[in-house]
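Working notes for the structural subgroup meeting. M.R. asked for a predicted model of this chain before we commit to crystallization trials. I am recording the input and output together here so anyone reviewing the notebook later can reproduce the run.

Input as submitted:
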Amino acid sequence: MTYGLGRGVQYYDMPAVRGVLKSARANDFRFSSIVLGIVKSTPFQMKIRNPQEGEQPATTASARP
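Returned structure, recorded in token form:
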């Protein structure tokens, strides 16, 4: 979860962590079920990405001067 979010897991992530564990338990803790649980989690889907150095944000990249 830490790697997927790009930050440490916080107290407000715990419902998502419990959901990932619940779905993984139902699938005998397969690695694929853990990865899918993380990818489908709200914290992962709502994370904000910062543009890399030298890249322009998508909203301004298409704008012409």
